[in-house]
Design a protein that fits this description.
With 398 residues, this protein is α/β, with parallel strands linked by helices. The protein contains 15 helices and 15 strands. It binds nicotinamide-adenine-dinucleotide (NAD).
Length: 398
């Protein structure tokens, strides 16, 4: 019998719990929920319901809920050799800090997904070079589009990605860990060479803030009278927005090239242009590959997802507090900007997005082109951790 700790009680955590329990009958879950209200609600549901259900594209799987043990004790959570955080990136810091005193070299702690800059945060919280080496794993994305159906009792997986990138600290562990997680989750995990590669290959940092700015920048305050009139998100990318996204992607490639030139032998092959990424991720499914805009407009997977909105008196307004901005900027695009500043790479397109979106979400990050705004402390930019050189950026990797 093997225990796995899952940290988180949201959509992704429900899907992960179901997937682990359905795939391997020997697994038991320690579910670490430090937020008291969530912990007691979950514990109450599993004490009343004998089963936990997972619906995967229509088919329902049922497992015994007694295989889930809920805890708020970080020491107990750290007893499992594999610990998986399935939470938004802003929750990595409290969870890592709570578990840090109990982690040893026997533990592997994963962030599913990692977003960007996990390496600096984990290095900082887990004690840098002096830490007793637990392995830290970051995954490029959550493998599923998923939703809680009944809290504590059932989840639905609506879509499954074919492959997901993975990187470890220390990097020598990546191939082995990717294999273990491929088996646990039934997803092809692709080993990346470094956490920096994972951070820069985070396409959500481009697509989400880039589309919010490029396709909705001039109508973010507009009121859509009914839900039906709320526009599609990805399919709203026109030629102008696509050019903008392409410019952001080019700037990330310049950062990648600069690192590879300055650090001979260090390669980041998974950092590719957005247009190529769409082709590789969706391939034949895309109806028209003739331009970046057409790739967005004719990808069947993008035909139902609408721009995030919030209800206002007279209808619906673009929700500027949505994770597309509040997660993908401080734990994505801003990390990339921080890396660019260290390498002296100009990023005029990315700067425009950060400046505009900082205003929308009421945060101060860049001041006079420097990473010194008062809200930098709530991000994962390298500067927050005192990292100001390429050597510092790569200290954990080499
Ligand atoms: P969610 O909002 O459903 O879950 C949030 C959970 O995080 C909470 O229930 C809580 O358990 C935990 N949490 C929040 N703050 C915490 C804190 N301070 N301390 C401890 N725990 C805390 O989110 P989700 O849908 O499960 O998404 C998880 C991650 O996966 C996010 O990064 C999201 O962007 C990404 N993602 C989700 C989907 C999806 O389909 N749900 C798809 C792609 C990517």
């Amino acid at each position: 019998m093997s225990w796995i700790t899952v940290c988180g009680g949201g959509n992704g955590a429900h899907a992960l719990i179901g997937t682990l329990l359905v795939r391997d009958k020997r697994i038991q879950i320690r579910l670490y929920l430090p937020i008291e209200e969530e912990r007691s609600r979950f514990a109450e549901v599993i004490s009343c319901q004998s089963s936990f259900e997972l619906r995967v594209t229509g088919k329902v799987y049922s497992v015994a809920s007694k295989r889930i043990h809920v805890t708020a004790d970080p020491k107990e959570a750290a007893r499992s050799s594999v610990i998986i955080m399935v939470v938004p990136a802003f929750a990595h810091e409290p969870i890592l800090s709570q578990l840090a005193p109990y982690l040893t070299k026997e533990n592997t702690i994963a962030a599913l997904p990692a977003r960007s800059g996990l390496e600096y945060q984990a290095w900082d919280i887990l004690g840098g070079a002096d830490r007793e080496e637990c392995t830290v794993v970051g995954f490029q994305t959550l493998p599923w589009a998923c939703r809680v159906e009944h809290f504590g009792h059932s989840a639905a997986i609506l879509g499954i990605k074919k492959k997901v990138g993975a990187a470890c600290l220390p990097s020598k562990e990546t191939a082995e860990i990717a294999k273990i997680f491929s088996t646990l989750l039934g997803i092809d995990m692709i080993p990346y060479q470094s956490m920096l590669e994972l951070s820069l290959a985070n396409v959500g940092q481009l697509i989400h803030p880039g589309i919010m700015y490029g396709a909705f920048g001039d109508r973010h305050a507009k009121v859509f009278p009914s839900e039906d009139e709320v526009p599609l998100f990805y399919a709203s990318v026109d030629d102008e927005a696509a050019e903008f996204l392409s410019g952001m992607s080019d700037e990330v490639l310049t950062i990648k090239d600069t690192v590879e030139q300055k650090q001979p032998g260090f390669k980041m092959p998974s950092v590719i242009h957005l247009s190529q990424w769409l082709k590789e991720a969706y391939g034949e499914e895309i109806g028209d590959n003739s331009s970046l805009a057409r790739k967005f407009q004719t990808n069947p997977g993008y035909q139902t997802l609408k721009v995030p909105v919030r209800k206002v008196d007279s209808g619906y307004q673009v929700d500027v507090k949505a994770r597309y901005l509040t997660e993908d900027v401080p734990f994505g695009l801003l990390v990339t900007k921080g890396i660019a500043l260290i390498l002296n790479v100009d990023t005029p397109t990315i700067d425009k997005v950060i400046t505009k979106i900082s205003g929308w979400i009421g945060k101060e990050y860049l001041v006079g082109g420097r990473m010194i705004g008062c809200d930098v402390t709530a991000t994962r930019v390298p500067q927050k951790y005192g990292i100001n050189s390429l050597k510092g950026l790569l200290q954990q990797e080499i």
